[in-house]
Amino acid sequence: MKAKITFLGTGTSHGVPKINCGCEVCASESVFDKRLRCSILVESGGSSILIDTSADFRAQALKYKIKTIDAILFTHAHADHLHGIDDIRAYQTKSSPPIKCFGPPAFCSDVKKRFSYIFLDKMPIGGGTPRISLSAVSQNFEAAGVGFVPIPVVHGQAETYGYRFFNAAYIPDVKEIPRESFKKLEGLDVLIIDALRARPHSTHLCLNESIEIVRTLKPAKTYFTHIDHEIMHERESESLAKLGLNIEIAYDGLEIWL
Ligand SMILES: [Zn+2]
Ligand SMILES: [Zn+2]
Ligand SMILES: [Zn+2]
After folding, report:
1. Ligand 1 centre from 79 Cα, in Å?
2. Which residues face 168 on adjacent strands?
């Protein structure tokens, strides 16, 4: 085994159930229809690498008993993927080194504006602050002993990456995969990719678009993630199974091994 992936959250930016929604999926009692905001934990060789500090990070860290974090990769600066960043303080002591963080260049400038207090030279009196070292990446890099390949994708206006590691790729927010990035996704054992809902969306792949990508890339196994409240897990899983493409709808708490 090279790595274990835990799906900490598989929901779209609102999460599922969505606040103030009474639709059948939001009202569903199935645990498979309860989705925190998108994030995964990659464990390999004794290291724990978090991809995105979701808006639900605190709940995820408690639910999945995350003991340590050795590095954090960010896909982009949308709130659902970033706004749990303050809670990484729980993994630091006064003497521990900053947690190494990596993301696209635009992400790095956005986070410095939005969370400027994290980057002050002097820690404010009376307030604990996460301590991170932030690196903008555009080429292959190593984080906590694991090699990662940034996969630039189109997702509205936000500069956004997926990441390839070992023989897996994680691309939670994407509308289009540019040709250069497509080449970096050949020969995958596991593809984890955005499939928001059946209806088209301006910045996310919908089910049919994601299925087309699977037909072209032919990964051995695919998990759909970043799911909204228009997808009922059980019903959609049954129709995907009929395609014979080895696609599953991911769910919170799902663990897979590479
Ligand atoms: Zn998102
Ligand atoms: Zn709903
Ligand atoms: Zn996004």
Report:
1. 8
2. 165, 190
